Amino acid sequence: MRLALVAAGLTLAGVANAQPSIWDAARDPTTRRDYQTLVAVERMVARDDSAWADPTLPERFMRAALAVIELAGGAQSADARLLYVAGDLLSDPMVGRDADARRLLERALGLEPDSPLAGRAWFNLAIASARLGDPRREREAYTHALDRVWEPGFRANILTNRAESAMVLGDLEASAADYRKAIALADRPDLTALAHYGLGVALERNGDLPRGLEAMAVARAIHIPGVGSALDLPSVFFVPAYDIHYYRALSALSAARDAKKPELVAAHLLDAGEAWQKYLDLAVPDRHRWVDHARRHQATTLARLNKLAPEIKRRAATIRRER
Predict the structure, then answer these.
(1) What is the DSSP letter of 236?
(2) For residue 58, is pLDDT > 90?
(3) Cis, peptide link before residue 240, omega less than 30° from 0
């Protein structure tokens, strides 16, 4: 589970401030073209920020900005600022050209590793690497991002994502440690919820189901306006995509643990059983690392449902008689 977008988004203000001098333009005519391209893109993205009344406009402005860069030859530019901006746009989920994004961001970081845009670039490079199925490069990039980012919410986002890459690599202790650091820094409900969801899964996969369910309970209690569960945020994605069912199954087990009435316990267990099955249907052919865990939980869930069945039938019969 990764959160692809942070609240601040891409900060372009001032990127195009350093206008090339007449001497710069004389030495390399492309510097003036690149500067003009940056100015145009900056204006488009600024319009994007004020255009949310129409949900289609942000993507349209983003794609238009990317088209301006590509038509101006920005992808081949030696201007690191232009490469940083192009890489950011290419890595956005609405564009999703991850291989191109990673290539341009690596070039930009090689040209100007100490740029003010480097922290965001390392984050975007990590996101692109995650979607390309390269968790080692992803984790490394998040570590570089942490060396350059100091805003607490952004750091919480990075730590949550790095925790997930550690979990993909099987390093559950490091994963749990990063989730806990993220929880301590999180300054938004979505970050807090996602870090607790991730911590719950990391603890369960490391053999501590009780504390895993406790972390899940904290996550479930955090309501995200307009969405409900943080797992349903459009900026959240899973690699592999079917791992969402593992998270939902554990969340349902947590809800079953906390429910007081047998019929509510049964309802949550049914949700868990369905989620485990959805996970297994896709994870077994893929030989996913956590299949055995899911099989054990599914068997336990079905056994609990069978045990509850007589009590639920008895209560239903009592209610019918009282009517």
Answers:
(1) E
(2) no
(3) yes
